[in-house]
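--- STAGE predict ---
source: upstream dedup step, 1 unique chain passed
mode: sequence only
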Amino acid sequence: MGGSAARRAAHPLRATHGAMIDLYEEFRDLFRADGITFDEAIAEHASFELDGRSIPVIGLHALIKNKQASGRAQDLADVEALSR
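--- STAGE serialize ---
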């Protein structure tokens, strides 16, 4: 299985009615973040458990890069705090 196919297979979510939802494909085209690509956002992702499901979140380096690129005052303050 290729790289992106392996990532897609690793992150399906079973909906309440039993259908499988491929979040990787669903959000790839919707994801728009300043300064980073979807692949960068998930490259170093972390996950947390919620109601028995693993929820992926953006990696720290990608989050900092995104916040720097946005240039908004709050995001730049967040970069400072995250970089400590």
